[in-house]
Amino acid sequence: MIIGVPKEIKNNENRVGLTPAGVKEIIMRGHQVYVQQSAGLNSGFPDEAYLSAGANLLPTIEEVYAVAEMIVKVKEPIASEYPLIRENQLLFTYFHFASDENLTKAMIASKAVCLAYETVEKPDGSLPLLIPMSEVAGRMATQEGTRFLEKPQGGKGILLGGVPGVKPAKVLVLGGGIVGFNAAKMAAGLGAEVIIADISLPRLRWLNENLPANVKTLYSSSHNIEGELRDTDLVIGAVLIPGAKAPYVLTKEMIPLLKKGSVLVDVAIDQGGCFETSHATTHANPVYEINGVIHYCVANIPGAVPHTSTLALTNATLPYVITLANEGWEKACEMDHGLRLGLNIVKGKIVYQAVAEAFGWA
Ligand SMILES: NC(=O)c1ccc[n+]([C@@H]2O[C@H](COP(=O)([O-])OP(=O)(O)OC[C@H]3O[C@@H](n4cnc5c(N)ncnc54)[C@H](O)[C@@H]3O)[C@@H](O)[C@H]2O)c1
Fold this sequence. Notes:
Layout: E1 2-5, H1 20-28, E2 32-36, H2 47-52, E3 56-58, H3 61-67, E4 70-72, E5 90-93, H4 101-110, E6 113-116, H5 131-148, E7 170-174, H6 178-189, E8 193-198, H7 201-210, E9 215-219, H8 222-229, E10 234-237, E11 263-266, E12 287-290, E13 293-296, H9 306-327, H10 329-335, H11 337-340, E14 343-346, E15 349-350, H12 353-358
Parallel strand pairs: 1-2, 1-4, 2-3, 4-5, 5-6, 7-8, 7-10, 8-9, 10-11, 11-13
Antiparallel strand pairs: 6-14, 12-13, 14-15
Bound molecules: nicotinamide-adenine-dinucleotide.
């Protein structure tokens, strides 16, 4: 199969759909890969690395779309890419159709086959192509929260791990899923006193067994959260109710309970945020203050570490890319029910019910 990797052109998107190592694996199996010039540069992969892996380089995005039977990328196509997409072409990328009616209509009109990373499932119902980005975002949440606790960044001026004779900072993680577990693990590793809260008792049991002793679990309720806030330095919001807007687990009435210079990191901002005072920010301008409490609400946290994020994403996508290239999308989706769930739009028809329902087209 001929596979194309265009350069991402969405604002501030520095990741790339395949690494040189991934390209090599694909070519070893008898396929051809065409990469747009400088596509991997911002992730730390120069053109020469793709050439050494056996890829062909093309100077323009138009040429990549024109030659490829399958496009492997990261973000959904943006308007300038719509006319480049061809009938029957396979697009394997994040789409998030339900939040973008124009994109949905454009992909229906293109008659392409849209296989969305975000709806591919494993037999246990987990989402293997979303998990790596939650792992990155969870770890980054602690890293960024720690940074903004520093005095020159506006924070309390407190070191997460303390030092001998001085108590460490206290970190409260709300939501103990993939993001929350990774945030708590990082904070614990830096020596903080960590509390992680969730509403799922089986999950709290699992967290209790799998996190170090300086992490305590807590059932998530307004009462319990209020009880923790007075001496908390960093709160990380990582709550998710699948398919729904995030609930407010930290209300605006609770903000005065926090001391000035405390830091809130709302990772759930991409689902509307789980703190009532959150609004989305960017890497260029990541924080704002309310009542002296710093809010960090960047909606694409993994974008700050494109090298790590690209490697993490492509580790997860590569086995699927190889199967799709070897078998073609129809046979590959027949063989793997979880991959079939990634099909959102096929040759002009929506085949994923939640997408149709999102626009009242069911
Ligand atoms: N900002 C970013 O760059 C970025 C990157 C990756 C993920 N995210 C977002 O982070 C959020 C968390 O993702 P995840 O992969 O960890 O999800 P997940 O499903 O693994 O975990 C969510 C957890 O929240 C818990 N929960 C639900 N309601 C709760 C409540 N009221 N109080 C406490 N816990 C509650 C669930 O029981 C679950 O354990 C999602 O909104 C996701 O989209 C954001």
